[in-house]
Amino acid sequence: MKVIKIDSWKAFRDIIAGDEYRSWAFRGQADAEWKLESTLSRYLKDYHVIPKVWSKQERRIFRIFKRKAHQFLVHLPKDDDAFEWLSIMKHHGAPTRLIDFTWSPYVAAFFALEHAHKTAAIWAIYPPGLKFKQTFPELNIRGNIHDNIGLWKKDNYEKYYLENNHEFVTQGEPYRMNRRLIAQSGTFIVPSRIDKTVDEIITNTVKEVETLVKFELDTSMMRHHTLRELYSMNITNATLFPDLDGLARSMALEFEFHYAFDPITGEKIAGFE
Questions:
Q1: pLDDT for residue 259
Q2: 3-state class (DSSP) for residue 25
Q3: Helical segments of 150-262, H only
Q4: pLDDT tier at 47 (50, 70, 90 boundaries)?
Q5: 105 and 84, same structural domain?
Q6: 117 and 207 Cβ atoms separated by less than 8 Å
Q7: What is the Cα–Cα distance from 206 to 168, expressed in whole angstroms?
Q8: What's the confidence (pLDDT) of residue 136?
Q9: Using 50, 70 and 90 to split pLDDT, how confident is the model at 51?
Q10: Among 12-26, 95-109, 196-210, whose mean pLDDT is lowest?
Q11: Are residues 251 and 165 in the same domain?
């Protein structure tokens, strides 16, 4: 896996503005030491749920949510549309194996640096590498393997993911996308196993092509300037989370910006002295 160290907004912008990372998916994380894994994986490990019951418990919470969510939803997904059900669960805070990514490196930079205090990270994944370069000798599937094992196909969640028997990573979105997914240019990376990190799985299965890159961001050198640039591009919590919660969350960053002066340095902006 390639690691690229970035110490300025300009350096990052120059890299992602070229053709090399066109059509890649990105994920920002506030700490470069954090692993590339799902909220479900972290929860099970952090709270010491024994691995032999992981599959049973994942299946159980999925069933419980589907039985009770109808009381709060205007639109109910089809009962067999596991991808949309999981997307709704994640949207509302349930631990799932879906990992948020975005097609926008700028959105990823916002999520990486907004609350960063240490070296931050942006993970980048090349979806064609997942689709055509993974090896699945145990699955005995002909044709486009990715299309056959995708979470968007009926019964695949139960067949290829829940039991954690196979080792692969897929990328995709449910057919019906919620407002946040649309606003964030979002997509999902979905590991077939929750006992391994995404980078471990990709290293073990992807052949012949560079599919995973990690940008390590020097927070102390670039956070304020980068967030100011993203603020001017209207990339804030208010736009990425288009609801009252997003608007409220966006107020925190307003402490750091002002049209007439820089709240960090106290320097007045020309014309507003």
A1: 87
A2: strand
A3: 156, 179-183, 198-205, 219-232, 237-240, 244-254
A4: very high
A5: yes
A6: no
A7: 9
A8: 60
A9: very high
A10: 196-210
A11: no
Cα 60-205-105 angle, rounded to 5 deg:
80
- Do 220 and 232 contact (CB within 8 A), yes or no? no
113 with 151, same domain: the answer is: yes
Question: 172: which strand partners?
Answer: 188
Tokens of 110: 């916002």
Q: Which residue range forms the structural domain that includes residue 268?
A: 242-273
Q: Give the global pTM.
A: 0.92
Q: Does 142 share its domain with 60?
A: yes
Given 3-state DSSP classes, what are the helix, strand and coil percentages for the chain, each rounded to the nearest 5? 40, 15, 45
Q: What is each CA distance from 69 to 79, 92, 141, 237, in whole angstroms?
A: 12, 11, 35, 26
pLDDT confidence band for 271 (50 / 70 / 90):
confident
